Amino acid sequence: MKHKFSDDATMDEIMSRSPAAIRVVLQHGMLCVGCPIASFHTVSDAAREHDLSEEELRCDLLAVTNAGVPD
C-alpha cells in the first residue's frame, strides 16, 4: 500500500493534505484541529499523548489519506 504521509509528517500536515483525516482525528477523541501542538506532533506523538493505539490511529488515517491514491 502506498503511504500518503511519512512517519515524520505532523498531524497538522496530514490534516491539511487530507481533510478527511480530520474526521478520523475527531472520532478518536483528539482535538488536534486548530491545536498549536499539531504542527509538531507526529502520529506517534499524538497517539502517545492521547493514550491511543498508534497502530489503530495510523491505520485509520492511512485508510482515508490513501483513498484514491494509486499503488
Automatic annotation (TrEMBL):
It comes from the Bacteria. Coiled coil: none annotated. Residues 8-57 form the DUF1858 domain. Transmembrane segments: none annotated. Pfam families: DUF1858. This is DUF1858 domain-containing protein. It comes from Mesorhizobium mediterraneum. The lineage of its organism: Bacteria, Pseudomonadati, Pseudomonadota, Alphaproteobacteria, Hyphomicrobiales.
